Amino acid sequence: MAKIIGGLTTSHIPAVGNAIANEMYDDPYWKPFFDGYPPVWEWLDKHKPDVAINIYNDHGLGFFLDKMPTFAIGAAHEYVNEDEGWGIPQLPPFPGDAKLSWHIIEGMVAREFDITSCQELPVDHGFTVPMQLFWRGAHANPDMPRAIPISANTVQHPIPTLKRALDFGKALRKSIESYPEDIKVVILGTGGLSHQLDGERAGFINREFDTYCMEKIIDDPEELTKITRMELVEKAGAQGTEFLMWMMMRGALGDNVKALHKNYHIPISNTGAGTMLLECEGVD
Ligand code: DHB
Ligand code: FE
After folding, report:
1. Residue 133 CB neighbour total at 10 angstroms
2. Ligand 1 centroid to 265 CA: how many Å?
3. Which atom of ligand 1 lies closest to the CA of 125?
4. How far apart are CA 218 and CA 199, in angstroms?
5. Catalytic site residue 195?
6. Residue 86 vs residues 18, 111, 199: alpha-carbon distances, Å
7. Which residues touch 10 (CB under 8 Å, ≥6 apart)?
8. Ligand 1 atom closest to Cα of 15?
9. To test the ligand 1 pocket, which listed residue (13, 190, 196, 241) has its Cβ within 8 A of the most ligand atoms?
10. 271 CA to middle of ligand 1, Å?
C-alpha cells in the first residue's frame, strides 16, 4: 500500500529560481534562506520517496481568471514548465504518475471533493521552485521523484476556507493510502508565508502571524481553521492566502507528526519564507 512519510513546506518565490540558476547559495542575502534546506535533503536522502504530491497554487499560467478551478489535480504523464515572464530559466518537463493521479481523483470525488482533473497542466514557479529546492539539481538529481501537481485557487475570490483546505488534505490522505502499490509518498505544501505584492500594503510581512502558523500547524491545525478568509488576508497579506496549501498538506499527514526541522527568514524578495519538515507517525 502507498505510505505517506511526511510533509515539506517552502515558499516558492520566483527570485529563488534565479538565485539557484546563478548558484548564489553563499551570497549573504540568500545564505540564511538556503541554509534552511540541508536538513530536508538529509531526510530525503534517507527516505527517498517515490512520488511527491506537490500542492501549490497556480498564478495564471495553467488557469486564468476566465476559468478558475477551486481544486485541480494533474492527471498527466508529464508536466511542462512554461515561461511566465519572471525571467527564470525554463525547466524540462516533470515526470508524473498518471495511474496514481487517477486513483487520487477517483478517491477525492468519492469523498465529495468535486475537483478538476487536468490531463494537461503547465506548471509555474509555485511547482518548479520547490522541486528545485528539495531535490538539488532537479532533473539532474536521480532521486527526484515523480510528481503530481494539485493546485488550489488563491488568485480569484472566493478562495477556499482554511477548514476546507484541511479537510481536502484529510480526504487526500485516504485517497493515497488506498493505492495498492508499495510506494513512499511525500506531500509538499508550497507558497506563503505572509506577503502582499501589490496595492497599498505592498511589501507587507507579518512575522508574528507566520510564527504562530508555523507553531500551530504542527499539533493543532484545527485551531487555524477558525481564521476566516478575511482575517487571513488581513494578517498574512493578499498573497499570504497561499497558506491554504500548507493546510492541505497538513491534513494529509494524519493526527500526529514530528516537526524535525523549521527555518524562517525575512524578507526573501517580498515574502516571509518558511520551511518545515514534518514526519508522519511510524516513520523512522
Ligand atoms: C513573490 C512571492 C510569491 O509567492 C510569488 O508567487 C511571486 C513573487 C515575491 O516575494 O517576490
Ligand atoms: Fe506565490
Report:
1. 25
2. 14
3. 6
4. 32
5. yes
6. 9, 38, 19
7. 129, 130, 133, 134, 188, 190, 273, 274, 275
8. 11
9. 13
10. 7
d(C-alpha 45, C-alpha 65), whole Å: 39
If you measure from the C-alpha of residue 117 to the centroid of ligand 1, how many angstroms do you get, rounded to a whole number?
A: 26
In CATH terms, 3-280 corresponds, of 3.40.50.920, 3.40.50.720, 3.40.50.620, 3.40.830.10, to: 3.40.830.10
Cell numbers linked to 275: 520551511
The pLDDT tens digits along the chain (284 residues) read 999 999 999 999 999 999 999 999 999 999 999 999 999 999 999 999 999 999 999 999 999 999 999 999 999 999 999 999 999 999 999 999 999 999 999 999 999 999 999 999 999 999 999 999 999 999 999 999 999 999 999 999 999 999 999 999 999 999 999 999 999 999 999 999 999 999 999 999 999 999 999 999 999 999 999 999 999 999 999 999 999 999 999 999 999 999 999 999 999 999 999 999 999 999 97
Q: Does the annotation count 125 as an active-site position?
A: yes
The full set of domain ranges for the chain reads 3-280
Kindly list the strands in the beta sheet with 116-118, ordered across the sheet, starting from the edge strand earlier in the chain: 116-118, 71-74, 146-152, 51-56, 184-190, 3-10, 271-280, 257-268
Per-residue b or e along 134-154, where b marks 16 or more CB atoms closer than 10 Å to that residue's CB = bbbebeeeeebbbbbbbbbbb
Which residues are registered as beta bridge partners of 7? 187, 278
Q: Which ligand 1 atom sits nearest the alpha carbon of residue 270?
A: 10
Q: Tell me which residues have their CB closer than 6 angstroms to ligand 1.
A: 12-15, 59, 191, 195, 197, 239, 269-271
| Marked catalytic residue, from 59, 103, 125, 265 | 125
Instruction: Select which of 12, 59, 103, 195 is catalytic.
Output: 195
What's the CA gap between 176 and 2, in Å, rounded?
6
